[in-house]
Specification:
Layout lengths: L2 E4 L2 E4 L17 H14 L6 E5 L6 E7 L8 E5 L2 E10 L7 E4 L2 E2 L2 E2 L3 E4 L6 E6 L23 H23 L2 E6 L13 H11 L9 E4 L10 H5 L24 E5 L2 E5 L7 H14 L5 E5 L15 H13 L6 E4 L5 E4 L1 E4 L15 E4 L6 E3 L5 E4 L20 E5 L5 E10 L2 E10 L5 E11 L8 H6 L10 E5 L2 E6 L2 E4 L19 E2 L9 E3 L2 E6 L2 E4 L39 E3 L2 E6 L2 E4 L35 E2 L4 E5 L2 E4 L22 E2 L4 E5 L2 E4 L62 E3 L2 E6 L2 E7 L1 H4 L30 E3 L2 E6 L2 E7 L9 E3 L8 E3 L18 H6 L2 E2 L9 E2 L3 E6 L2 E7 L23 E2 L4 E5 L2 E4 L16 E2 L9 E2 L4 E5 L2 E4 L25 E2 L4 E5 L2 E4 L4
Parallel strand pairs: 11-12, 12-13, 15-16, 16-17, 17-22, 21-26, 30-33, 51-54, 58-61
Antiparallel strand pairs: 1-2, 3-4, 4-6, 5-6, 7-10, 8-9, 11-24, 14-15, 18-22, 18-23, 19-20, 24-25, 25-26, 27-28, 28-29, 31-32, 32-33, 34-35, 35-36, 37-38, 38-39, 40-41, 41-42, 43-44, 44-45, 46-47, 47-48, 49-50, 52-53, 53-54, 55-56, 56-57, 59-60, 60-61, 62-63, 63-64
Helix pairs in contact: 2-3, 5-6
């Protein structure tokens, strides 16, 4: 019913529909409604409800429980009305089909009633879906008593919607009889406020979880715009396979991380997206992870809130439209069958929609017009449909109904309807005769009348099996036919299409029988444009994908029509009088309104971007060299995980990424964080600036800017001027970067460094570290004067107790005792030199890894007589992590992490005991992962597996540490002195291995404020006790005893 104001009185327009479902006006359910009002008064502040959520697959269920009693599995807490609530979760595994289970919850000192949970057939099964329950949306509504002058309160709105919602759920179960999964497209609650409104929002969630039927089915929900400002969603729902390293996470409090997730149910893959922040990288990552884990599912369904192909007047042509091209550009590459949305509170269904760029020469990849449609038929079988079917579900509780967009006809819409009644939809999955079918229908929740449908889709069972190889290998979509290959990896070809990497399906490398170069370990050339670059006795050679390839005479090679979107080879700068830069030269020296400019052979040149004539919205994007290799570039300050001939590689979000090369790093200097840093020095290596008192390399030189001419045909471009050192700053030139000179190390079996920083100096000379191995920078004069190269002073046959000699005689001395000098290789002690006499303890300088950190290891002496070669006693923590061992074995344990137990001595952290981790995967021929946060890629009977340096590695399970951050889904920092990067209500956080980690507060000495130190021995004898605490005596002085 539409309300207006007339003569200062509220009045209704005759025959108009009510925009909400007011139960006070419905006689058919009055008795039920009156009884519920009394019941709800007892239930509205019940914030201790269960949610039964989907697991990673159909054999698993996630249950979350909110209560007032803290349990060991607590992960979040919240204070409401002065009471503290805790969230706990339980995972139920090994659930079988066609079975009946029972469970009950123990809460507040007693057991609840038993709940029955059934599972059904895995070939023929049903989902229920709804849009916008939006409990609480009925608040602020006018009622006819008295005379439409009063509006509903928050409590009245919640109560009204709770009753309607409970009826919708009961009727949906009654109609479908055996539903397996329940889907909600977001806005479970209406309250959009922050934590000041948390009581009302939690009351709305209490109403959402009130129906008893929801305890008997697994559900999956998406985050709507009404609930994104708090973490009520995160407290109530335990999402499977979540995206934990979101691009949004770094700017939020950490609870956003589980809003993008996916799960498998029988032969259906469902990906749930968080679309409020509209981050394409998040969409790409979670969809890619889902497809790579479950590539062969028959049906691919996406669930998210914003209706990107809807018809509502409120959102579909505004905020939802902004998300269309970004989301659809990702989903369409993976051929999603169905998308379920909400948001607009009207019902609509689409035709089949596919991604199609309207303007072939356009750089607008994210235009809302980039789609094409194919007709759909209702009540008949649509066989092997092309495109995606979009359903926008109406407000399922009836709390708020809105209008249609009527300014123009939307050609993608097939049907739309506003019934002004609660509705629900069903997905009916069946299998028969090698086919799979999906039937989609929407019903009125009160009358069971069909609102829309049925839409029936049919295709071959297993249609995704072996259809796209790159989905299995790397989670990448496959390229359209005739896409030009851009790179090769492990005998497979990859292309680049619509700003994303894809697998080539219609072209293959020549087999051994047709490729003469195979016997030389090379592939044969396949591209028509490839020219002969070398001829030898074996044959003619070309180059493709950065590798040498053999040219086969008479072989008709592939000729490609470049994708006009990704490759526009027309030189846009020709008409301005300048050539375009050669392929691969993408260094941007200037940007004008016409495009990006490079500099080549003493002249300006136009840079041809992937988009055609330069991506002016993202200048400098071409600096990401790894994109043409099929990988994105890493975020700033990424850790180098591997290095090859292409460059440095990192590992983020479960995928390899290229690290934008810092040219000065290999000279021992960081690059400037400011790309426009003042140039203070220029040499043959590049331009140098200064930051924090240190030299830094400037990544991108800034040239004299070209000015637009008076005519439109030509620019007066000036040559790049060489910057000169500034006299305005005084800099210590002794710290200028030094490039290694040539050396004679190869005759002694070592490689010579090219450009690197000095990592170690010994009697042989100065050493660096390049390409994961040691190299000589310069041989010492004393060494060159020796006739004999360095020989090992250790003989394996003379050793006992299982120790061996160090393979490298120049291994750094980590420890010296009467038996000789000791080093460490591959994390094990080895003997460098055996002594025949006792050597006095000395201090040695230790360099283990190729870093600039120099660690001094204090000597350990012994007066006992022992047999030759004894077990070394120095603390490996000092050698491996740069932290001292506690001198007192009884030091109080103040901190536990994956390294071991830590204490405090002399106001510094020290290691009490290191945890020895057995590397279970070594017996299988694989190393264990070094990164404690490495992503789990695979699990078998042996254990969990990750990937490092492009090789499988075994994940060693960390023992529980008692770290406070673990209950919030994080770990504590490995380095107890890590820098504080943020502080929130939970505590202080550091950042390690690309993840936030909790920082442990240093134990405080209570007696310091009284002018006394604390006892170094935590078990010191108590000599006196007063109101301050227990006192001991050390060195004839009082000391406070810290409670252990």
């Amino acid at each position: 019913m539409v309300m207006v104001i007339e003569n200062n009185e509220s009045c209704a327009i005759r025959h108009s529909q009510r925009p909400w479902n007011d139960r006070e006006l419905i006689d058919e359910t009055r008795d039920e409604w009156n009884a519920f009002k009394l019941e709800w008064e007892k239930e509205k502040y019940n914030f201790e409800r269960l949610s039964v959520f989907v697991g990673t697959s159909e054999v698993q269920t996630e249950i979350k429980n909110v209560n007032k009693k803290e349990k060991t599995s607590t992960i979040f807490d919240l204070k409401i009305n002065g009471e503290k609530y805790y969230t706990n979760r339980v995972t139920v595994s090994n659930i079988e089909r066609n079975s009946k289970y029972y469970y009950q919850r123990y809460i507040n000192g007693g057991w609840e009633k038993v709940t029955e949970y059934k599972t059904y057939d895995d070939k023929n099964f049903k989902f229920i879906f709804v849009g916008d329950p939006q409990i609480g949306g009925s608040r602020g509504r006018y009622r006819p008593f008295p005379k439409f002058k009063n509006t509903t309160t928050d409590d009245e709105g919640n109560r009204n919607d709770a009753f309607n919602w409970n009826r919708v759920i009961n009727n949906a179960f009654k109609y479908t009889k055996t539903p397996n999964v329940f889907l909600s497209a977001g806005d479970q609650a209406d309250e959009v406020g922050d934590y000041n409104y948390i009581v009302n929002q939690e009351s709305e969630y209490s109403a959402f979880l009130y129906p008893k039927k929801l305890k008997q089915i697994v559900m999956a929900t998406s985050v709507g715009n009404h609930e994104v400002s708090t973490n009520s969603f995160g407290r109530h729902f335990n999402t499977p396979n979540p995206l934990t390293n979101s691009t949004v996470t770094r700017n939020y409090n950490g609870w956003y991380t589980r809003y993008n997730y996916f799960f498998k149910y029988n032969n259906v893959l469902v990906v749930v997206l968080e679309t409020n922040h509209n981050r394409e990288d998040d969409y790409k990552t979670i969809v890619r992870n889902a497809i790579m884990k479950y590539p062969e599912m028959d049906w691919r369904i996406a669930l998210f809130h914003h209706d990107i192909f809807g018809i509502g007047s409120t959102h579909s042509q505004s905020d939802a439209l902004e998300r269309r091209a970004v989301v659809f550009n990702v989903l369409s590459k993976y051929n999603f069958d169905l998308v379920i949305n909400g948001h607009d509170h009207v019902y609509s269904s689409s035709k089949f929609v596919s991604y199609e760029t309207k303007n072939k020469n356009s750089t607008r990849f994210y235009s809302e017009d980039n789609y094409e449609i194919e007709e759909i038929k209702k009540d008949v079988v649509n066989k092997n449909p092309k495109g995606t079917f979009f359903v926008t579900a109406n407000c399922s509780s009836g709390s708020k109904f809105l209008a249609f967009y009527e300014k123009k006809k939307l050609n993608y819409i097939f049907n739309h309807k506003q019934t002004f009644t609660p509705t629900f939809g069903t997905l009916d999955f069946t299998q028969y005769d090698g086919k799979v079918a999906l039937n989609i229908t929407t019903f009125d929740a009160e009358t069971f009348e069909t609102v829309d449908g049925s839409y029936i889709f049919e295709k071959d069972a297993g249609s995704h099996i072996d259809k796209c190889w790159s989905e299995k290998v790397r989670g990448l979509p496959c390229c359209p036919l005739n896409t030009k290959p851009t790179n090769k990896e492990n005998g497979r070809l990859y292309g680049y299409h619509r700003k994303d990497h894809c697998g080539i399906v219609d072209i293959a490398l020549l087999p051994d029988s047709k490729c003469w170069a195979k016997k030389y370990g090379k592939d044969c050339c396949i591209l028509q444009e490839t020219e002969v670059v070398n001829t030898d006795e074996r044959g003619q050679w070309g180059e493709e994908f950065g590798e040498e390839c053999g040219i086969v005479e008479g072989y008709t090679k592939y000729n490609f029509i470049d994708d006009p979107i990704t490759y526009n080879t027309k030189c846009w700068s020709d008409e301005l009088g300048y050539k375009c830069c050669s392929k691969g030269n993408n260094a941007v020296y200037d940007i004008t309104e016409d495009g990006e400019w490079g500099y080549e052979d003493g002249n300006w040149c136009g840079i041809i971007s992937e988009d055609g004539d330069g991506d002016k919205e993202n200048p400098g994007e071409e600096e990401c060299w790894s994109k043409r290799k099929g990988y994105e570039c890493c975020s700033p300050n990424a850790v180098v995980m591997s290095t090859d001939k292409d460059g440095d590689w990192g590992y983020e979000n479960g995928h390899w990424c290229g690290i934008i090369k810092c040219w000065s790093k290999e000279l021992g200097f960081k690059c400037c964080s400011n790309v426009e840093a003042e140039v203070l020095l220029t040499d043959k290596n590049g331009s140098w600036g200064v930051e924090n008192g240190q030299w830094c390399g400037i990544i991108k030189q800034t040239s004299v800017k070209p000015t637009p001419p008076l005519t439109k045909t030509r620019y007066e471009l000036k040559p790049i001027e060489t910057p000169t050192p500034s006299d305005s700053k005084v800099i210590d030139k002794s710290e200028e970067p030094v490039v290694s000179e040539s050396c004679l190390a190869e005759q002694f079996g070592y490689k010579c460094c090219t450009k690197t920083k000095v990592c170690h100096t010994d009697e042989m000379g100065t050493w660096g570290y390049e390409n994961n191995e040691w190299c000589i920078i310069e041989l010492s004069a004393s060494f060159l004067n020796n006739d004999e190269p360095v020989k090992s002073k250790c003989v394996d046959e003379n050793l006992t107790n299982g120790y061996t000699c160090c393979k490298n005689p120049n291994t750094e001395v980590a420890y010296t005792d009467k038996d000789g000098t000791w080093g460490v290789e591959k994390n094990n002690w080895c003997v460098i030199e055996q002594y025949s006499i006792v050597v006095e303890p000395t201090t040695t300088t230790t360099t283990v890894e190729p870093t600039t950190t120099t660690t001094t290891v204090e000597p350990i002496t012994t007066t006992t007589t022992v047999e030759p070669v004894v077990t070394p006693t120095p603390c490996l923590a000092e050698y491996k992590y740069g932290k001292k061992c506690c001198s007192n074995a009884n030091t109080i344990v103040s901190f536990i992490n994956t390294i071991g137990t830590w204490g405090r001595e002399n106001n510094e952290w020290c290691v009490i005991e290191m945890y020895e981790k057995e590397c279970w995967s070594e017996k299988l021929g694989y190393k264990c992962c070094s990164n404690p946060y490495v992503k789990e890629f695979y699990v078998d009977i042996n254990g969990s597996w990750g990937v490092e340096n492009n090789n499988w590695c075994g994940i060693v399970e960390d023992r529980p540490t008692g770290c406070w951050a673990e209950k919030y889904g994080s770990k504590c920092c490995i380095n107890p002195d890590a820098e504080v990067v943020k502080t929130d209500n939970y505590g202080q956080w550091g950042f390690e291995y690309g993840n936030y980690c909790g920082l442990i507060e240093k134990p405080t000495c209570w007696s310091e404020s009284l002018g006394y130190n604390c006892c170094t021995d935590p078990h010191a004898e108590i000599a006196y006790t007063d109101n301050s605490g227990n006192w001991g005596v050390e060195n004839n002085n009082w000391c406070g005893i810290i409670n252990n």
